[in-house]
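QA checklist item 7 of 12: single-chain prediction sanity check.
[x] sequence parsed
[x] length recorded as 493
[x] structure emitted
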Amino acid sequence: MILLENITKDYGNHKGIFDVNLAFSPGITGILGENGAGKSTLFKLLLGLLKPDQGNIFIMGKNLWEGDTFITSKRWIGYVPPENYLVPSLTGRENIELMAYLRFQDKNQYHRLMPYIDILEMKDVLDEPLSTYSSGMQKKLHILVSLLGNPPILIWDEPYNQLDIVALMHMKELLLAYADETKATILFSSHIIEMVEDLCSHVCILHQGHVHFYGDLPPRGKLTPYYVDIIQKKEPAFLKNSSPKVEILSPCGYDITKELKGDSMPLIEVKNAKKDYPLGKTTVHALRGVNLTVEAGDFFSIVGPSGSGKTTLLNLIGCIDHPTEGEVIIDGQNVSQLSDKELTNIRLYKVGFIFQTFNLIPVLNVRENVEFPLLLMKDRAGLTRAEINERVERLIEEVGLKDFITHKPTELSGGQRQRVAIARALVTKPAIVLADEPTANLDSETGESILAIMRRLNESEHITFIFSTHNPDVLKYAKRIIRLKDGLVVSEE
């Protein structure tokens, strides 16, 4: 089905993939590798989004870059990207029909997806606009779109991101059913070895752009030690600094130290917050009356199934959206009573955002993306050019991207882009950091490192962190856990 001969794509500084020879046949193959190993580059080459510096790629026996194969291959491959690209103003059904028309000039492809729509439990939401979907629901819609036309090849780039445990089980059921029914060649990248062991017949391990293993899946339990031998664990530079300098930045007048001196006023209060989204003649109740108090220095997680209201709640706290009813109070200010300019100042000076979809500026490199919030501040937060450079470069090094400082987002893997987004959120030293699935696109080692950065800053600089997650391994870092279901807080621990 897929053949790569001596493929090299060199970005410089030993980044890319090099002399790759692979032949993928029908069945499910897991692509393992640390962030920056070359997984996304491999997929982009197979999709024709990148052209190799040398070598040949054959899809269904035809050279990808000869004749019209590049165009034809779009019908042969179903792709699930790490980021959402569908149209938010259209319903789920309309998005499926649009993609069916663009690829096959046949809107009726939608009806052939019904068995998979049932598996993913999406039937009841397909007539709602994408703007009302949770990130997990959007991911499931991407999975459905990838199955249009029953393609003989599936390429899924970390398809489990943003999926809760139940949705993950449904995704596994769907993938196994599709593989059995169509005998397709299925490639999916993963950081989770247990998922590869559950689903795959073959495994390919990439490290620093080279194929270190490709073959039948080893017996259960044998893959982990082999993978660990390849991916040597090293202590991140930031963990070696046991006594980091504490620097408190309060350009908007909020003094973090007042909490340390005993002022007990909550940093954040959410009072009976409701959020409704109109949907034709009906209404989607995303939040149904949430009450929450957050003290300065909290480090807690919001958990719940897809569609439970996690992202909506973060958006209200971050002043990206406003409640239909109820109040959100930040540092004593009812944000519903503030002007657009005042809300902008809160977002700029008090809140750092780590988005699921990164929201990086594609024309800026890593340094420029991280630096950008400081440049938006009046008088650049009182920092000199040298101080800005020092802060930006230190953060970039701490998240492990020193060698990528001049790279643009399109030259980075999903996990690397996530780390840029994290550095950008921290660069202004905000009082509050809101993180929507902050480790979703990271391998386990990098995820642990990022959480260690957050916990260190929480403890040393008293920054408040609120993050949503589906990952049970992340919860061990949380001081508090808030559980949402159907737009309500159902428990707190």
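[x] summary fact logged: Residues 18 and 146 are 28 Å apart (CA to CA).
[ ] second reviewer sign-off
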